[in-house]
Every structure is written in structure tokens, then in C-alpha cells.
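Appendix C reproduces, verbatim, an entry submitted by the partner laboratory led by Prof. M.T., so that reviewers can inspect both the input and the predicted structure.
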Amino acid sequence: MVARERDRGNTALMWVNDGRPANDPRASAFNERRRCYDLIHDALQHLDTASSREPEMVDGKLTLIATKRLEAYEVVNGSDDEVFHFDLYEWYMQQGWTDRILAIDSPHVVTFLQRLAGSSAEHADLLCRFYTNRSRFFDAAEVQAQLALSDFALGIKDRIRLLSLAKANASVATVGVSRQQQQMLNHTVSESLEIANIQDDLLGRLRMDERIDAEKKTEVEQSLDGKMLELSQVRVPRPTGFGPVLSGCSQAGQLFNEFADNVGYHDVCLLIYHTAGYRNPTTIAATWSNLIQQTHEEIMSRLEGLGPGMPSPPMPYEAVTSKIRNIAHHTSLDSFAFPIQTLLPELCRYAVAYQQDTSIGADPTWPVQLFLALGVSHDMILRVLEDIFDTQDYGFSGMARNRIIETIVYVVNSWVGEARRRGGSGKGGTIGPSVGDLLARCESALPPPGQGSNNGGADLADVRRVLRTLRREVSGLMERVATGSLRFM
């Protein structure tokens, strides 16, 4: 009451709301009011000290001092003096009593924490805690997302943690928040989380890369272990001779792109393509080819340098499989970053060219087994293989064509087996006449019995036998589907 009487125009509140500008005459009104507030702070502190010397409850009832303390804080928290509330909360912060602030139910405390959140990461985190304590999960998610993208001195892992929390909070149903609002925030946070994870992966690998000197590593850490890059900064490097890679973008943006490409982190480049929505098929196909080649060479180098007692690395095709699985997981089989129509033929070519087949004890059909395990339909895989069979591209001409026939037979056999289990249809739809036609053409393309070879693959006699059995089964399956009978004899 006394404080407000000294400032009837409420100029102190206007000064606070304007951000407390320096050299403003209204500051004197605030200081006058603060002298009154300091007396209240002293009284509260004396009351806290006195009550701490006595028990709070006796025989199940509040003691006199506990009652007086409770009444005092009810008066304080119930005050309608907004300037007093802001000053009180500042005093609480100075005393380290953040729990008191979190326990207060007042519109003034929300305003105070919202203003404070822009001053430091710790204060923004306090606002998040306030929201989550009151089940305001959407508001907490917004603050966490803003904090993760802020200019505060936070490492990339801290930003990933904040985005993960924001994603979880944005997924929780909150009173007064529509499903559409949740989805929009979730999408934005998920997109930022993808970029942050790529940035963290790139940073970790650059730190461990022995090709980079210590001075450059320090520069990399300063650029990448901090503020996240904007999506607009994620660009694909231009081919040599086309000028600056990222004219106008920050140094961090240039490091993010140039290092991933120039240092040969092809898997990171593919994730960048996916996140940035880059869709140049030639560049993407070349990056996949480089990744397969690089992975193979790295494993071969490790095998050549293997000493006594050293653990054996995986086989080259196993390492390639692992890389592809990881990228498939992160891209969700995106048709641009994960182009099955070019990746599968490239993988089949690699298996033959580098003898990643029975020559080393591997199953020669491992490329299609990988794609089936990733959830790609039999129909899609078969269409890609049929194209290779017809065009004889990727080096699958002459005797090498037998390997594609063997692979086609494997996929159809798997499809028929699934159709049996499902009662007439398999993953990717019903087996149609085109499958029977493809099998017939494959059988015609096989060399006469006793002739030809299938280096690195199964015996041609076995391939022919399974193929003929499949032709009969596919023919019978189509008849049963046509007549409505799903029984297999």
C-alpha cells in the first residue's frame, strides 16, 4: 500500500514492462517502491528463521509460529501489486529459492519467468519446469525447442537433449491445445532433431579423424559444438569449378557441407540430402556408389593389417549391409535419398564384381534379402530385377546374367512362400501373370543343361529345378486366386 502510494501513476510497472531501460527517470519510482519491498523481505526472512527453530506441527496441529508464517505468505502471494511480485521473485532467485517460485500459482509468476527465460539457459529451463509441473506440456515443448535453437552457450548434445524433451512433451495431449498445433510443433522439432543428430555425428567423426590437424579440429569444434545450423544452411556442395559452395552462409554451414563431402563421409552426405530435401538423382547415386566402394576398401584394409590376436572385422558385404540399414532407418526409405531402383542394382553389381558371394561363404542373394528385411515389397524388388534382366545393365550380360536369374528365382520363391502363409497374396500385392511370364523368360535365358556357369552363385541345375517348380506353383496360385480358392494343394 505504502509503495503504491509513492507511485500512484504506476510508472515503476511501465518501466519494468519496457525492459528497464537505462537512464530512465521512471527507475527512481521503482527504487522508491523497492525500499518498501526490502522491509517485507527482511520480515519474511526473520519469520523463516524463527519458524525454523520450532516444529511445524504439534499433536497434528500447526504451531503458532507456523500459522503466522503461513498467513504472512498468503498475504504476500495474494498481493495485487505486480511490481511487488516481480521484485519478490527476483529476491527469491537471489536467495536460490527457485522451488518457491515453482510452487506459486499466480499469473505474475508466469510473466516473470517468461521475461527471465530470455536472459539465460538456466532461467529458460526454470520456465520449462514450471510448465511441466502444471501439466502444460505444449508450452514446455515450445520453450525447450526455442532454447535448443537459441544463441546461448550450449553444446550440441545439450541441444539434442532439449529437442528430445520437446518432442516428448509436444506429443502429450494438453488441455486447450489442438491436435494440429501439436503436429506442427512435433514436425518442426523432429526436423531440427534430424539436423542436430547429423551435426553431432559429423562433429564426433571429425574429432576422431586422424587426417585433420589439431588446429583445424579446434576450429571445427568451435563451429559445430554449439548453435545448430538452420535448415537453409544445409546445402549440397557444387562440383569442383562451380564457385563457392555456400556463398553468404556461415562458416558453420560451410564446414557442415564441405567436410562431410570432402573428407569422404558419404553416409553423412546422404543424411544431409534427406534432411535438406535434395533430389538430384545423379549426385545421390554417385554418393551411394562411393559409400559402398569406401566401406569395402576400409574393411579390406583392416583385413590386410590384421595381426595375431586382433579381432576380425566383419566381411565387406556385412559392413556395407550395416551402413545401408542405418541410412534406411534414418531416411525411412525415402525414395529420393534411398533410391531402390538404383541402389539395388548397384548392390547386385558390387556382390558380383567384388566376389561377395559363395566365393567367401556368403549367400549370393544377400542384396535382395537385405531389402526384404527392410520392408521393401517383393513386387518392387522384382520390378527392379526384371529391368536389369531385360537391359543387361550393370554388367549383367553373358554368364553374369545367370546371377540375376538366380536372384529373381529367390525373390519369387520368397513371395510364393509368403503368399501361402497369407492365403493368396504377399507383401506388395497379388502375384500376377507378369511373374509367370518373367520366370518363363528366365528359364529360356538359362544355358542348356550341362553348359554355362554361375560363378559365385548356386549351381545352375539347382536354379533351374527351383525355377520350374516355381512356374508350376505360380500358375496354380493364379488359377486359385481367379476361382476364389485360397487352398494350396
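The chain has a mean pLDDT of 87. Additional entries are available on request from the coordinating office.
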